[in-house]
Specification:
Blueprint lengths: L11 H4 L7 H11 L5
């Protein structure tokens, strides 16, 4: 069975460069580890 995943994160501060978005990449890595297409 193929599982396709889309990830959306929203952060005013991360998009403004106040800090790096760590949540989106962490969710992506966890999904890919399970063999899901992101």
């Amino acid at each position: 069975m193929e599982i396709n995943v889309g990830i959306i994160t929203i952060s005013d501060r991360a998009s403004g460069g106040q800090y790096e978005d760590l949540g989106g990449p962490a969710v992506k890595a966890a999904a890919e580890k399970r063999g899901w297409d992101v």
